[in-house]
Amino acid sequence: MTKPFPSPQATDHYRPDIDGLRAFAVLAVVLYHAFPKEVRGGYVGVDIFFVISGFLISSILFAEIAEHRFSVTTFYARRIRRIFPALAVCLAAVLAYGFVSLTPSELAQLGKHVFFGAGFLSNIALWSESGYFDSAASLKPLLHLWSLGIEEQFYILWPVLLWMAFRMKARVGRLLAVLFLASFAINVALSITNISDDFYLPVSRFWELLAGAGLAWRRRIVLTPLVRSWISFAGLAALLTSVALFTPDIRFPGWPALLPVAGAVAIILAGPEATLNRIVFSNRAVVFVGLISYPLYLWHWPLISYAYVIRLGKVPTPLMATALVAASFLLAWATYRFIEYPIRFGTHRHRGTQIVAACVAVLGACGLAVWINNGFPERFPALPGIDMRKIGDAKLDADFKPTKGMKVLDHDWTLVAHLRHGERKVALSGDSLLFHYGPRVQQLADEGQLAANTYFVTGPRCAPVPGLIQRDKFARCAGLPGILVDLVQREKVQSVVLGAAWTGYSDEGMLIEREGKRLPLNTKEGMDAFYANLEDYVRLLQGEGANVYLVLGAPGHHRFNPGEMVTRSLTGFQIAPDVEKAIPIADLQAIHAAVDAKLRTVGEHTGATLLDSFPDICGSGDGCLPFFGAGEPKFSDNTHLRPVFVREHLRFLDPLLK
Question: Which terminus of the chain has fewer Cβ atoms in its 10 Å neighbourhood, N or C?
Answer without folding.
Answer: N
